[in-house]
Design goal:
Keywords: Methyltransferase, S-adenosyl-L-methionine, Transferase
Mean pLDDT: 94
Number of strands: 7
GO molecular function: methyltransferase activity
Family: Belongs to the UPF0677 family.
Structural class: alpha/beta
Radius of gyration: 18 Å
Strand content: 5-15%
Number of helices: 11
CATH class: Alpha Beta
Order of helices and strands: HHHEHEHEHEHEHHHEHE
Function: Exhibits S-adenosyl-L-methionine-dependent methyltransferase activity.
Oligomer: single chain
Bound molecules: S-adenosylmethionine
Strand order of the largest sheet: 3-2-1-4-5-7-6
Protein name: S-adenosyl-L-methionine-dependent methyltransferase
């Protein structure tokens, strides 16, 4: 593990900026995978971390972290990502069991759900992210001879622009129900881009579709600048979340979906920590305080 690391600020590079956050989540999933009381298993996660020069020396097991679970980044935040992975795995599998056979991962990053989860037959998983991230992911998965458990369709696109055409061009059918996920994505997008994304999802979804997304509700993100999580992430791996998060006014996407006839429910991660018996609990000056997981359904007729 590195000590004080350089800051990575280029938001377009795969090994830097927001692309690097995908590796942080992968390292967290690797750590979660090797825990005795693991909430989610991802055998591919550590391979992504080891294959990228920018993070090849990051830990992939909690035993490799000198202060272990006491480390705000590799202990508490990694456990947060482990819990989030499990909760959203459950959401996706629950949703496809009700009928939809199309799954769209927005900002898929190094998500390997197409390979990890037991999808019903006939499922297609569309993975939208920037071309560089998807190309890196493909190289590692090809080297591992990984076989997806659903039809997997990578879709290189910029989610700040109009990506609907790219998705329908590769076989997504807007007239059939679908399940969507925006995990660790929306707070990197400018507010208008988030609104456009929600509008696009609404436009591309038939009745009976579902969407889960992660939001941050803090009015002033910078108030948490000195929180243990942001400080540890800056100092240990050189990622400054507060430089990467969009700091403009956020839209009320849950409210927008409700106004469009979706039913929505919003939860704190701590609700699920209590449900699963492990995961982060609230603490003072907590960078996770405003995090919410939103589940939305477009009612079937
Ligand atoms: C924190 S990672 C989360 C990845 C994945 N959802 C997960 O939870 O493992 C954020 C991802 O969003 C992608 N992303 C951010 N802005 C994007 C944009 N404008 N267009 C496409 N992808 C974007 C990044 O490339 C990165 O892979």
């Amino acid at each position: 593990m590195t000590g004080k690391a350089p800051q990575h600020m280029d938001v377009e590079g795969v090994n830097e900026g927001v692309g690097l956050t995908a590796f942080l989540v992968a390292a967290a999933r690797a750590i979660e995978t090797h825990r005795d009381d693991s909430l989610a298993e991802d055998v591919y996660a550590e391979h992504f971390v080891r294959a990228a020069p920018a993070c090849a020396d990051w830990p992939v097991r909690i035993e490799q972290v000198p202060d272990g679970d006491g480390n705000p980044l590799w202990g508490r935040l990694a456990r947060y990502f482990g819990l989030r992975t499990r909760v959203l795995d459950d959401f996706l599998l629950r949703s496809v069991r009700t009928g939809p056979r199309q799954v769209v991962l927005l900002g898929a990053g190094l998500d390997t759900r197409a390979f990890r989860l037991d999808w019903p037959s006939g499922c297609a998983v569309f993975e939208i992210d920037r071309a560089g991230v998807l190309a890196f992911k493909q190289r590692v998965l090809t080297d591992l001879a990984a076989a997806p458990k659903a039809e997997r369709v990578p879709v290189p696109a910029d989610l700040r622009a109009d990506w609907a055409g790219a998705l329908t061009a590769v076989g997504f059918d807007p007239t059939a129900p679908s399940v969507w996920l925006a995990e660790g994505l929306l707070f990197y997008l400018p507010g208008p881009a988030e609104s456009l994304l929600v509008d696009t999802v609404d436009r591309l979804t038939a009745d009976g579709s579902a969407l889960a997304f992660e939001a941050k509700l803090e009015e002033d993100l910078l108030a948490y600048r000195d929180s243990a999580i942001y400080t540890a992430t800056r100092e240990q791996v050189g990622i400054d979340f507060l430089l990467l998060f969009d700091k403009g006014i956020r839209p009320d996407s849950a409210g927008d979906l409700t106004a469009r006839g979706w039913s929505t429910s919003m939860h704190t991660p701590f609700d699920f920590t209590r449900r699963y018996g492990r995961g982060p609990l609230p603490e003072p000056n907590d960078a996770l305080e405003g995090n919410r997981w939103v589940f939305a359904r477009k009612p079937a007729p």
